[in-house]
Please model this.
Amino acid sequence: MQTRLAKIIPAGDYWMETVREGETLRIVDLEGNQAADTLFFSAADPAERYSAVDTIREQGNVYLGLGTKLISTEGRVMLEITADQIGRHDTLGGACSGESNTVRYDLEKRTMHACRDSWLLAVAENDQFGLTKRDITHNINFFMNVPVTPEGGLTFEDGLSGPGKYVELVARMDVIVLISNCPQLNNPCNGYNPTPIEVIVAR
Amino acid sequence: MDIDYQTLLDGGKHWSFTARRGSGLTLEDVEGGANLAMLFYNPANPLERYNAPDTLKCQHTFRLGRGHCLYSDMGRIFCSIVEDSVGWHDTVGGNANRALVARRWGEIGYQEARNGWTQNGHDAFLVEAAKYGLGRRDLAANVNFFSKVAAGPDGSLSFDPTNSPAGGRITLRFEMDTLVLAHTCPHPMDPSPTYPRRPVRFSFFTAPPVAEDDACLTGCAENGRGFANNRLYHLCAGGH
Model:
């Protein structure tokens, strides 16, 4: 494997790059319990994008892990999880925003930095991709633990991840990857301590 | 309750409308086992749309039922579930597209069956979305009223075909003006051996004002703050 790209992303920052079919994307939780809020778009047709609901329904399981095929809104495989040191990743919890923070925590927390702000800056600064707020949909939260109960409850728990653990995906089509390294300070998912992640693209 | 307008949406059909703030809508699963999919947008700015993850995490729930609110991505409440005889409505099962319907139940085209064709939820939403200038980029995880998808202890998903009986009812109260896209095409996990085609009755009425002890307003502290966001919206430019 030859590394094409490697970048450390501080919490509160974003990473937006094209990953080619056949390339491997590794996301490393450098210090543990971080959340990497991730969206994927088909590079050839960005209106086709990662679909959380199609992915969990087609695999028959609400958690993502080794072997999960990430399914697009058109029902095609975009990427596949080929290595996973964590065991479970969330795709129900969505991404934090100033607006959702007002509901979840306090009306006066609307100005705290949030994943959706990072994504909006990303699509604005990278307008060569032609994406806007319309394209900001339901994401994967790599490293995050959101258990669902048979009675229909949903909770946010301390992460299952740990320092240096990683997840690896192989792209089955050319994809635009948009990651927000989550800046959330109100949620136990990152131990109230957002930390850097590293992304590595290799082939 | 005086009903302002009533209509029956047959199974496998689609529709859309704008519900005014303060209107109520009772939905009835006439025969049992219906699936009524919906997506919600702000008609004044369709970039504000229903957000299933925010709806679930704000209320710490995987299912929808009485007392729950359906949130936009802007921290506001499109509508509240003020009554519900069913107890579980899905928002994680998604939508069936043409290929899935063909694989599951076989495809019967319009030429062959006229309006008895096997319409799919994805195309149904695209047709309704396009009426408002919306398209593929604007579709999101939808609600599937009357359908139940549960997760086992290991996360495995299962569909409960007995969830909604004949006469099952749910009532929504709109907390802001809301563009509603709706279809009665089959839930993608419905195990029915034949294409399920079940009607839903829509009854529109004027809802009474939200009381201080309203079950949705007081259901959790988060919903109190959601209602506060709506209040701010109507105080500002979003008011009419």
